[in-house]
Design goal:
CATH class: Alpha Beta
CATH topology: Metallo-beta-lactamase, Chain A
Shape: globular
Order of helices and strands: EEEHEHHEHEEEEEHEHHHEHEE
CATH superfamily: Ribonuclease Z/Hydroxyacylglutathione hydrolase-like
Structural class: alpha/beta
Helix content: 25-40%
Distance between the termini: 6 Å
Radius of gyration: 17 Å
Mean pLDDT: 97
Strand order of the largest sheet: 6-5-4-3-2-1-14
Bound molecules: zinc ion
Low-confidence stretches: none
Strand content: 15-25%
Length: 259
């Protein structure tokens, strides 16, 4: 598992692979050059990517899909997203070779790149926001960013997952005193915005078990959070749930490999 970058400002792109499956790319929200350089730094060439899964239409998740010649089209990579996402995408005038368009929706599981990948809905202020659960021979990996709260349904689905990328977006006090426009602060803090460090910790304490090997805190705000604050909040919350794995932060702008 790896990320190319992880933040609203620098974009989001995550990669999952194992010895026999993948690599599969989750979101491609960076400029093309950054995506290509990031893949190279991680030891992949773009043609290796077996599929792209798109979580939602915010720019920090789809930038490389919104080019005149989208990244996946250059390398003939199929792209999975919800039917409502595709309606939005083509409705905006973007174009992708229709042969590469695949659909996935809440509750559906598909085979891609040797994995079984399931989609589940999450509360976020976008058209039809999805997150993904990847099942491979080394266990399950979940990618969960961009949500305002964590419903019990998601906790139940992910409980005991082996690998987890989880949003820990902001410190609430830093967000409130950031000087950002009121509407933006209200959006981030709202039920359909982003998870705070405290919310991420609370979710972790219910999702992580002794089975959980790795937790990657992701999509940290570069202005209203610090890696140290996110780690402290989440490691405190993890006390007592049996978690004995590794807790890390995904760098906002550089590529990183986690396992
Ligand atoms: Zn985002
Ligand atoms: Zn978003």
């Amino acid at each position: 598992m790896a990320s190319i970058s992880s933040s609203s400002v620098h974009g989001n792109a995550y990669i999952v692979w194992d010895d026999s499956s993948g690599p599969v790319l989750f979101d491609c929200g960076t400029p093309l050059t950054k995506l290509l350089r990031g893949l190279e730094a991680l030891g992949f060439s773009p043609g290796d990517i077996r599929a792209v899964f798109i979580s939602h239409e915010h720019t920090d998740h789809i930038q490389a899909l919104c080019l005149k010649r989208p990244f996946p089209e250059r390398f003939s990579i199929p792209v999975y997203a919800s039917p409502l996402f595709w309606r939005w995408y083509f409705g905006c005038g973007y174009s992708l070779d229709r042969d590469l368009v695949r659909t996935i929706q809440d509750g559906e599981r598909v085979k891609a790149g040797g994995f079984v990948i399931g989609a589940f809905w999450k509360p976020h202020d976008s058209v039809d926001p999805l997150s993904f659960l990847v099942e491979g021979k080394d266990g399950r990996a979940a990618l969960l960013t961009d949500l305002g709260h964590v419903p019990t349904r998601i906790i139940s689905l992910l409980r005991g997952v082996e690998y987890l990328v989880l949003e820990s977006n902001h410190d609430v006090e830093m967000e409130r005193s950031s000087g950002r426009p009121y509407a933006l602060v209200a959006r981030v803090l709202g039920d359909y915005g982003h998870l705070s460090n405290v919310q991420a910790g609370a979710a972790l304490s219910r999702i992580a078990t002794k089975n959980t090997r790795k937790v990657i805190l992701a999509h940290l705000s570069v202005d209203c959070n610090t890696p140290e604050m996110a780690i402290r909040s989440c490691s405190d919350a993890l006390d007592g749930c049996g978690f004995a794995g590794e807790l890390r932060v995904a760098p906002a702008r550089e590529p990183a490999i986690y396992c």
